Amino acid sequence: MMREESITGRQLFILIFMTQLGVEVMSLSHAEADVAGHDTWLAVVLSWLCAQVGIMLIWWLGCRYPSRNYFAYVSKIVGRPVGALVNIMYGCYYALSGCLLITNYSDVLNRWLFAYTPRWVILPMLFIACGYAATLSLKKISFLAQTYMALPLIGLMLIVFCGVYGFDVKNLLPVLPSGWNPVMKGAYAAFSAYVGYDLLLYAFPYVKTKTKSRKKLLLIVSLANFSSMLYYVISCLICSTMFSLNQLRLIPEPIVFILKYYHIEVLQSIDILFLIFFVFIVSDTAYIYFFLSAKAFQHLRSQGMGKQQVWVWSTVFLAFIGALFFQKRASLRQFSEMQDKLSLIMVVALPAIMLIISGIRSVGRSKA
Questions:
Q1: Spatial separation of the C-alpha atoms in residues 131 and 315, rounded to whole Å
Q2: Number of CB atoms found within 10 A of residue 210's CB
Q3: Which contiguous run of DSSP H or E holds residue 141?
Q4: In DSSP terms, which residues pair with 267 in a beta bridge?
Q5: Is residue 212 classed exposed, middle or buried when 0-12, 13-18 and 19+ CB atoms within 10 A define those classes?
């Protein structure tokens, strides 16, 4: 099993921030149009609070086993057979997440950029690039993410620059016309945008801060989560102020639409530039998923089971084969909704259960 080198707090911040950004930046306002309406930005803030609770759970759990990652110590909490089953669940979950993410983005590229290019031409390029990156160590992956950290910031500048013209603040009014119920439903739908903080499950023991404080580790992950929230809130506010609800229901990626139809003399086709930038951001999220999937399968045995490269390319190959079956957007949407529900189970419910069991066992041992 590959021995992990330590990473800095800054590198962890970049990894989590980049992993939390995904296709949802372009499509969240459309997905929330029938749920939270123009109060999508409130749903995003509420789901951020829920993600923060999830971060606290993982941090508390990691503090109980500071020298091991989640996949290594889960068997100590629930026993080897159940622990192996849990790791298999995580391995499959992350492989499915990577598959759906790449397939969704290839669908976006097909509709906005490569209308006459078959999807089976785009998919192999994305899967091979992500598979190669996923074979690296956590430290090398963090170096890779650092090289294009500026891209999401440039993307946000493009969104803000093109979105400040033609917006109407009146579209945001009235606030909460139907009360908090639609916003709470929207928060459930928006939670998947914050999935990515669960990288802490694996990275916890490998982060070295100057003060070696666990509270600083919590602060770093919380800041990354907060930065992602600001990114999503700004994107949703711009979409909500520029489009009516009926328009948001019809446009799958409102952000790309804004960029496509905004013209300046010195720069042509801003939407193409944005989509190219976002290839790197989506790829970062995808290869983190494949990396975590391989690590989950590797920890099926305490001594390590197989090589990381073998597990990565096996999961990437199977994910690619699965992606070829998503020919219709309806089926892709159904699986994406299923993956959203799985995310709540895998990154919130299961860590909470492990924390409770760990607490009960430690109390039992202290009484004995």
A1: 9
A2: 8
A3: helix 138-147
A4: 264
A5: exposed
Nearest-angstrom CA–CA distance, 309 and 275? 29
pLDDT tens for the 368 residues of the chain, in order: 567 788 988 999 999 999 998 888 888 888 888 888 888 889 999 999 999 999 999 999 999 888 889 999 998 888 888 999 999 999 999 999 999 999 999 999 988 888 888 888 999 999 999 999 999 999 999 999 998 888 888 888 888 887 667 677 777 777 887 788 888 888 888 898 899 999 999 999 998 876 567 888 999 999 999 999 999 999 988 988 888 888 888 888 888 888 887 777 667 778 888 888 889 999 999 999 999 999 999 988 766 677 889 999 999 999 999 998 887 878 888 888 888 889 999 999 999 999 999 888 764 444 44
The one-letter amino acid code at 24 reads E
CA 195, 199, 204, 208 torsion: positive or negative?
A: negative
To which H or E segment does residue 194 belong? none
Largest alpha-carbon pair distance within the chain? 76
Q: What is the spatial distance between Cα 290 and Cα 311, in angstroms, rounded to a whole number?
A: 9
Confidence (pTM): 0.92
CA-closest candidate to residue 98, choices 127, 122, 119: 127
CA distances from 109 to 118, 182, 211, 254 (A): 11, 31, 44, 14
Nearest CA to 194 out of 352, 22, 11, 15 is that of 22
